[in-house]
Amino acid sequence: MKLWAVLLVAVSYSLAAADLTVSLPGHQLDYPLAELKQQLPVKRVELYDPVYGQQKSYLGFLLTDVLKLAGYQNGMPGDELKLVASDGYAPSMPLSLLAGEPVLAFAEAGKADFEFEAVTQGKAKLSPAPFYLVWTQGAAAKHQPWPYQLVKIELVSFAETYAALYPTGVTQDSAVYQGFLLFKSQCLSCHSINLQGGEVGPELNAPKNVTEYWSETNLRAFIKDANSFRYKSKMPSFSHLKDEQIEQLLAFLRYSKAHKVQL
User: Fold this and answer.
1) Does the pLDDT value for residue 113 go beyond 70?
2) Would residue 67 count as lying in a domain?
3) Are 21 and 106 in a shared domain?
4) Alpha-carbon distance 59 to 210, whole Å?
């Protein structure tokens, strides 16, 4: 058998065997796609996908249906969903966003299970399989998490799960706290502070804080447009952030420098 055929079989087997893990307080369950199809209605959605930059049609399950299947009930301890991809990308989203009816897609409409057009990530092209979280609002939800290669969903209490990066002793109207909120929504999915957060990008605080080896002038420019420093950077452009917001991010990073985790 030729090498490409062996690799194709290996990838097909891997995806066919892929499970989605749902972790709730007190228990954790693994769901193969076949079981999800048996237990839940399959929903077809058509939307403008900002990841691809075009209109797309997907087959999947309402995220609320998946959570209910796993035993989620209103009032369970936790205020956010941590969404974990196979490469370490790990955005979190407040439970309030469930009102937007996000859909856990397992294929593009008209294609086989786990079959998607490849997406560009930096220098690589990747399949979003096994699961891809998409939003029925399309472009209107472009600043919400669109994680692909999703393998786990976990209900967490943010302040407890991310205690090592949560700012204390500051007011909620301070630049530090506002910068923390921006970091949480814009950066945490890829980067960690004190080893808490995503694993796609580098750790930003320990043992060296990024402001200790990058000039703040370069940091401001890099956050705005990483591709102006590195062609095909995995880090997207944050040109939508205002200068004031960039300064708030830097204020949070400076705060973190004085609150490093010790190993």
Assistant:
1) yes
2) yes
3) yes
4) 41
